[in-house]
Design brief:
This protein is α/β, with parallel strands linked by helices. It folds into 2 domains: 55-84 and 342-454, Aspartate Aminotransferase, domain 1 (Alpha-Beta Complex), CATH 3.90.1150; 94-338, Aspartate Aminotransferase, domain 2. It has helices at 5-21, 90-103, 111-114, 118-130, 142-159, 182-193, 207-215, 239-249, 271-275, 303-312, 314-318, 324-339, 342-354, 367-379, 409-416, 430-433, and strands spanning 29-30, 60-64, 72-77, 116-117, 135-139, 172-177, 197-202, 221-227, 252-256, 283-287, 297-301, 359-365, 382-383, 385-387, 397-402. Bound molecules: pyridoxal-5'-phosphate. Residues 141-143, 146, 181, 183-184, 227, 231, 256, 258, 287, 289, 295, 297 line the site of pyridoxal-5'-phosphate. GO terms for molecular function: pyridoxal phosphate binding; serine C-palmitoyltransferase activity.
C-alpha cells in the first residue's frame, strides 16, 4: 500500500486517539439469511457479447413539449453519466429486484449503530481489489464520500494538536485544481472553516503553479486532490506529472475517479490502471452513480484511513446504510462492467471520432445563452444539458454532452448537423471541441488524452 511514511506516523497518532474514544471496526458483520440459488441476486449473473434492446432505453425518451402544446416529443438524450448503459442491464435489474424481495432494505441505521451486511462488504472488497487498495469505504452518495474523506483528513490535524487547535504547521495543506467539481469544493470549505486545513487552489492542470505553491507551504502534511477526468471540462489531469511531483514533495495523492472508474483501464480500474500507477495513488475516490448506473460513493484506501473515515468521516458516520438492493445492483453492475469490456471499447470508439473524452464540454458564455442553446437542442430532438452556476462561473456556462456505449455514430452525426451552433466552439476538429479562452483562470491548452487500453 502506497501510504507515505510521514503520513503513516501522523495517521497512526490520530488513530490511537480515535481508538480511545470508540472502535468502529468492532461493528458486527451482519450475515443475511442464506437463500436458494433461485433467490440469490448474483446467481448465474448474465453477461452478453454485445448490446441488447435495453441498452437504449434511457437514450431514446419522450419528453413534454417546451412550448406548452400538448404531446410528447421523441428525443435522444446526451446528458447522463451512465457511460456503460448499465442502469438498465438485466443482471442489474434482477440483482436489485431479487435482493429487495428476499431481504427488503436491510439494516436501517448508520454503520456505527448496526454494522454492515455481507453484501456491503462484498462491494467494498471488490472496489478495493479493482483499485489495488487494501480497503474501501462505501458511502450513501459520491457527494458524501468527498465530504467524509475531507473531514477525516481535517481530523488528522485537529486530533493531534494541543487543545485540538492546530498551528499553521500542524494544519494540513490541501492543494486542489481550480476545476475540481463542487462536491470537492464543499468539502474543502468545511475543513478550511474548521481551521484544520489551509486550502491552495492551483490553476487548471498547471503543474508549475502547483509546484510553486507546494514549495511555499509551511504545512508538514500536504495533500494533492485532483479529478482524473474533470467533470466540468471533460479533460484529463496530467496524472503522470502529478505522480512525479509527489516524489519531490511527498504529498498524499488523492485521485478522484468519478468519471474514470469502469470507463478506463482494461478491467475498469480507472486512470490508475491505464497508467499502471495504482500504487502511487494513496486514495482513490469515486461514485457508482456514473459508469455503474446505480448509486453509492466509495473511498478506496489503506486500512488505517478506512478506520479514520468510519470514525470521523461525518456523512459516513451519521448516515443510514445504503439499502441492500442498491448495494446488490452496484455489485452486479461492477461485475458486468468487468466482464463486458466491449462496453468500454464502444465508449472510446465514440470518443475517438468526435471528442477527447466521453464528457464533451462546450463553452457557450452567459447563463441565458446556455439555456437558449439547450432549448434549441431539445427542439431539434436532443436532450443536452446547460451547465450553469453554481457549477461554473456565470460567464463560463456550457453545454455538456456525454457519450455512452449505446450512442451510435448516426446519433452523433445527427447531433452535429443541428443548425444552431456556438459558432467558433462547435468545430469538427478535436482542437475546437473545447474552447475556454474567455476565462483567465482556465488554461486553453489541452493535455493529450491518455491512450486508453481496455
Ligand atoms: C467529482 C464528483 N463528486 C461527486 C459527484 C456526485 O456523485 P453522487 O451523485 O454519487 O453524489 C460527481 C458527479 O457529478 C462528481 O463528478
Amino acid at each position: 500500500m502506497a501510504c507515505l511514511p510521514l503520513w503513516e506516523d501522523r495517521l497512526g497518532r490520530t488513530l490511537k486517539i480515535v481508538d480511545k474514544d470508540d472502535d468502529p471496526l468492532h461493528q458486527p458483520n451482519i450475515c443475511l439469511p442464506r437463500v436458494s440459488p433461485a433467490e440469490d441476486p448474483f446467481y448465474g449473473l448474465e453477461t452478453f457479447d454485445g448490446p441488447g434492446p435495453w441498452d437504449r432505453s434511457t437514450l431514446e425518451v419522450e419528453a413534454g413539449n417546451l412550448t406548452g402544446t400538448p404531446g410528447a416529443k421523441k428525443m435522444i438524450t446526451f446528458y447522463g453519466n451512465d457511460y456503460l448503459n448499465l442502469s438498465t442491464h438485466p443482471a442489474v435489474r434482477k440483482a436489485a429486484a431479487k435482493a429487495a424481495l428476499v431481504h427488503g432494505m436491510g439494516p436501517r441505521a448508520p454503520f456505527m449503530t448496526c454494522g454492515h451486511t455481507d453484501y456491503h462488504r462484498l462491494l467494498e472488497d471488490t472496489l478495493a481489489e479493482m483499485t489495488k487498495k487494501d480497503a474501501c469505504v462505501i458511502t450513501p452518495t459520491g457527494f458524501a464520500a468527498r465530504i467524509a474523506l475531507l473531514s477525516a483528513l481535517g481530523n488528522v490535524a485537529s486530533l493531534t494538536s494541543a487543545g485540538r487547535r492546530p498551528t499553521r504547521e500542524e494544519r494540513i495543506g490541501i492543494f486542489a485544481d481550480i476545476l475540481n467539481y463542487p462536491t470537492i469544493i464543499d468539502g474543502l470549505r468545511l475543513v478550511e472553516e474548521q481551521r484544520e486545513a489551509d486550502v491552495f487552489v492551483y490553476r487548471h492542470n498547471d503543474i508549475d503553479h502547483l509546484d510553486e505553491l507546494l514549495s511555499g507551504c509551511p504545512a508538514e502534511k500536504k495533500v494533492v486532490y485532483s479529478e482524473s477526468l474533470f467533470g466540468i471540462n471533460g479533460d484529463f489531469a496530467p496524472i503522470l506529472k502529478l505522480v512525479e511531483l509527489r516524489k519531490k514533495h511527498g504529498y498524499l495523492f488523492v485521485v478522484d475517479e468519478a468519471h474514470t472508474i469502469l470507463t478506463c483501464g482494461r478491467n475498469g480500474g480507472g486512470i490508475g490502471e491505464v497508467y499502471g500507477i495504482q500504487d502511487q495513488i494513496d486514495i482513490c475516490i469515486g461514485t457508482l452513480s456514473k459508469a455503474t448506473g446505480c448509486r453509492v460513493g466509495f473511498i478506496a484506501c489503506s486500512e488505517g484511513w478506512k478506520k479514520l473515515i468510519q470514525a470521523r468521516g461525518q456523512p459516513f458516520t451519521f448516515a443510514t446504510s445504503t439499502p441492500v438492493p442498491i448495494i446488490a445492483a452496484c455489485y452486479a453492475a461492477v461485475e458486468v462492467a468487468k466482464k463486458e469490456s466491449w462496453r468500454r471499447g464502444a465508449v472510446w470508439s465514440r470518443v475517438e471520432c468526435s471528442a477527447m473524452s466521453p464528457l464533451v464540454s462546450l463553452l457557450v458564455g452567459s447563463e441565458q445563452e446556455a439555456v437558449n442553446a439547450s432549448r434549441h437542442m431539445l427542439e431539434c430532438g436532443f436532450h443536452v444539458t446547460a451547465i450553469r452556476p453554481p457549477v461554473v462561473a456565470p460567464n463560463a456556462c456550457r453545454l455538456q454532452l456525454t457519450l455512452t456505449s449505446a450512442h451510435t455514430s448516426e446519433d452523433i452525426s445527427r447531433l452535429l448537423q443541428v443548425e444552431w451552433r456556438p459558432a467558433a466552439l462547435w468545430g469538427t476538429s478535436n482542437d475546437q471541441m473545447v474552447c475556454l479562452p474567455q476565462c483567465p483562470e482556465y488554461t486553453t491548452s489541452r493535455p493529450h488524452p491518455p491512450s486508453i487500453s481496455i
